[in-house]
Amino acid sequence: MPPRIQTLEQHILETQRAHPAASGEFSWLLSAITLATRIISAHVRRAGLVDILGETGKTNVQGEIVQKLDLIANETIATCLGYRDNVGIMVSEEDDEPRILKEPDERAKYIVLFDPLDGSSNIDVNVSIGTIFSILQRRDGAGANKVMDHILQPGNRQIAAGYVIYSSSTVMAYTTGQGVHMFTLDPAIGAFRLIREHIKMPAQGKTYSVNEAYRPQFPKGVQEYLDWAKTEQAGGYGLRYIGSLVADFHRTLLTGGVFLYPPTQKAPKGKLRLLYEANPLALIAEQAGGAATDGKQRILDKVPTSLHERTSLVIGSKAEVERVHSFWRA
Ligand code: AHM
Ligand code: MG
Fold this sequence. Notes:
2 domains; 8 helices; binds 2,5-anhydro-1,6-di-O-phosphono-D-mannitol; binds magnesium ion; alpha+beta; Fructose-1,6-Bisphosphatase, Chain A, domain 1; 8-stranded mixed β-sheet
């Protein structure tokens, strides 16, 4: 018999079948995300041929320059999710405020948070970029400030998370808390095909990934770790830094090592966003046997206090994260 082709949608349905209480609602929601990322991938592949490269001339709520593809990706995801009646709220890194599709209720129980195009400063130079998503369920007994109560939940309450990397191929990794599974978009059939199930991040790995140009701005302990990594005693670490979180994380997930974005003088709380970047990747890291902290505590235990909250991030192989902490504790 020829080898079996298993698409992402089949994989989700089969995983759900193992849980008789599952209603299929969740796979309906995830199919909106996979559709959106297939559309974004098609745009990315044609960038340069049509007028979608470059800046829009606008800055987002975080003061960052908005690229044309940022906007396309944001609206694509919003449109695809907008047709799913079980999504109550959408929260995007590119939007000032949450988009409330429906007051979350028994039916519209999902809250989807996403970074539509991570690493977008790399778009114009053909470096890998990605989409990151996190899914929460509405919170029972939310208080007066209901919308924010539904959104500002710690990462350990995520019911799913994932990312798509638009690179030499388009790859999606996702978890629903039962391991991490990876799919490659087959352009011939327009579907994500299963390539690896239950991915395990190597327990250690001799790669550190950090924007070392900020070294003088890092806390002393981080500087000491970076000094140690270059010693003979450390045993030959290499540095890899793409400057696209999804790409740096994808490499770390597959080959081990550690990615760091510590606090700097310019970004004393770190640069990366807790809700759309750190939380989803932390869930994936942990599900693959890795670890993720902000230098002080587990990322997944952080209770967010605002929508676009930033955090420092140390993520990767367990032993390497611990090694960083042996030099630095925030
Ligand atoms: P973005 O979401 O606006 O693209 O910003 C996040 C990106 C990450 O992908 C990457 O890890 C980081 O910014 C790079 O920052 P720096 O250029 O300071 O090294
Ligand atoms: Mg980002």
